[in-house]
Design brief:
139 residues, elongated
Length: 139
């Protein structure tokens, strides 16, 4: 979601600057910018709701459907461990080379998957911390 916000931010800045230049009445300009911001937030909210529905449907579909991403990452990590740790030991002990070749696209998938997991877990931790601080402040 963050890349989407980074893509929208320059557009919003251009729109707000255009409103400032085109509309002489400051109150009307402020109202137009507020309306634009409301529309962008509603659009982002709809995107988040759609993503949440996908995750919810996947979770309700059963164990395998909800676990395919982690399972894929486990398989890829096993291949890495085999190729770079266990494979060389196997070669040293028995003289046989057994490796599993990974296409370049799989490396990209692994990077994106691990990056998404790390960013997702970090965002989850930050959200939990912020939520706990808000609860303590409200009490």
């Amino acid at each position: 979601m963050i890349p989407v916000l980074q893509a929208i931010a320059p557009l919003a800045k251009i729109l707000f600057n255009t409103v400032d230049k085109a509309v002489a009445d400051k109150d009307l300009a402020a109202k137009l910018k507020a309306d634009l911001q409301t529309q962008m937030l509603q659009s982002h909210t709809q995107e988040l709701q759609a993503a949440a529905k996908i995750v919810e449907a996947e979770a309700k579909a059963g164990w395998f459907a909800s676990s395919w991403r982690p399972l894929l990452m486990y398989v890829l990590i096993f291949i890495l461990v085999w190729n770079y740790i266990l494979g060389p030991v196997f070669k040293f002990l028995f003289g046989a080379i057994i490796t599993i070749e990974l296409p370049g696209d799989v490396w990209t998938l692994l990077q994106i998957g691990l990056g998404g997991y790390v960013v997702g877990r970090s965002a989850e931790s930050v959200a939990r911390t912020i939520a706990n601080k808000n609860i303590k402040v409200d009490e």
